[in-house]
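Structure in, sequence out. Go:
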């Protein structure tokens, strides 16, 4: 909640009329300050959204808008949606040779799920098809989502969650254990030591990290670099794991992966093979890709999930005041799906976010990330990127539970992200 600063103090500590509010830049009625200010704050939120939309239709973005509109129209065509979904399923199956026969695909986690009381073949099939293939996935997901997505009943779901939580010993634990758990966190180097230091040693697993900034500030370049670096050995700053890249803007370029691999003397063919790529054509598709991801993480040894960019589809599809609430609701669920994946599988989730200029801010940073408070609440670490001189970029940690708000400078070169 923003603080209300009131001018008009008469010197003896008592407020006099008028109650001039610096934030609203207007007088408040005596006795109604809080109410009026709250209304002002709500109006401002709506105004922000309107400003965003207006900016999105500026000349520069005209082309993107057209493309999104086309996609939106296409998406209305059911056949195309089905086609996209089919091709998505095919490509994911090709990508990791998912075995259709779930019975033959029983690994450790599935065995654990199968051992829960009351789980027969039918229940197991439903759970696995909906992506709930481990005790963690069942224990960490809200019951309403399990019910909706698996088709299981309320009572069964409640029983399964309770049993999973008991088996995982979920409850209170001492801070010492939390500290031990924190020590197990792995990190991916960004390629720049300065940027790594800023992030407390690199991109950490078990978290959702958001990079936001204007166009060409290097968000997509960092995402490419992380896909390469995640595959390095732990000593080299990697996770010895693979990457899953969800591309909503069509800006993934294998050429860049080749360049970045070669700059580190890596076999680019191998690096490319270990990046699972999914192009999201609309927000539904994007949500679906993340749901599908749950089924391939283990098999493909995925240690990094990228969503570049997180909300562009949500933004173009949910236009106008009336749809704002439902947009935030879907976005919230999508972000929680991602956050859960990071916690359940101990992997790093990194998302990018656009910013929109806020012309009403005359001091400080005139830009703000999109997605409102929902994105800010779900991101564990938020990094703001801006341009420096030439190939230099400046990163600033804006919000992190254990990092100071400081800055680092790095460079984008043909070989990738390096120190400046
Ligand atoms: P965004 O923040 O919009 O995702 P990008 O990550 O795509 O921005 O960054 C684009 C910038 O990356 C370009 O302006 C350029 O400075 C740099 N860049 C892209 N490709 C190369 C390359 N092959 N060699 C050097 N710099 C590059
Ligand atoms: Mg980009």
């Amino acid at each position: 909640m923003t603080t209300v600063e009131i001018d008009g103090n008469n010197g003896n500590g008592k407020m006099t009329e008028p109650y001039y509010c610096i934030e609203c830049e207007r007088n408040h009625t005596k006795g109604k300050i809080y109410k009026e200010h709250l209304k002002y704050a709500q109006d401002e939120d709506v105004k922000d959204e309107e400003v965003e939309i207006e900016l999105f239709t500026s000349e520069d973005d005209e082309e993107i808008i057209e493309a999104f509109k086309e996609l939106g129209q296409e998406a209305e065509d059911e056949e195309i949606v089905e086609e996209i979904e089919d091709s998505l399923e095919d490509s994911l199956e090709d990508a990791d040779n998912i075995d259709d026969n779930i019975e033959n695909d029983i690994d450790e986690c599935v065995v654990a799920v199968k051992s829960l009381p009351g789980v027969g073949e039918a229940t197991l099939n439903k759970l696995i098809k909906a992506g709930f293939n481990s005790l963690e996935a069942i224990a960490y997901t809200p019951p309403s989502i399990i019910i909706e997505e698996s088709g299981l009943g309320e009572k069964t779901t409640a029983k399964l969650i309770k049993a999973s939580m008991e088996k995982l010993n979920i409850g209170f634990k001492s801070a010492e254990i939390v500290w031990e758990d924190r020590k197990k966190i792995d990190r991916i180097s960004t390629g720049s030591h300065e940027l790594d230091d800023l992030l407390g040693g690199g991109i950490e697993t078990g978290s959702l990290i958001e990079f936001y900034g204007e166009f060409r500030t290097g968000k997509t370049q960092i995402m490419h670099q992380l896909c390469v670096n995640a595959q390095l050995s732990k000593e080299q700053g990697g996770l010895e794991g693979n990457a899953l890249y969800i591309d909503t803007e069509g800006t993934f370029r294998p050429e860049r992966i080749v360049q970045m691999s070669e700059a580190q003397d890596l076999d680019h063919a191998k690096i490319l093979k270990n990046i699972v790529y999914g192009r999201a054509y609309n927000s539904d598709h994007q949500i679906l890709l993340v749901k599908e991801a749950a089924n391939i993480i283990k098999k493909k040894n995925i240690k990094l999930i990228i969503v570049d960019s997180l909300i562009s589809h949500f933004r173009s599809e949910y236009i106008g005041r009336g749809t704002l609430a439902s947009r935030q609701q879907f976005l919230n669920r999508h972000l929680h799906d991602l956050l859960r994946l990071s916690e359940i599988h101990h992997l790093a989730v990194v998302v990018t976010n656009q910013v929109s200029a806020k012309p009403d801010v005359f001091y400080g940073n005139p830009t703000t990330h999109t997605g409102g408070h929902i994105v800010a609440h779900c991101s564990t670490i938020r990094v703001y990127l801006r341009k420096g001189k030439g190939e230099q970029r400046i990163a600033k940690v804006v919000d992190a539970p254990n990092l100071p708000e400081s800055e680092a400078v790095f460079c984008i070169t043909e070989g990738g992200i390096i120190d400046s």
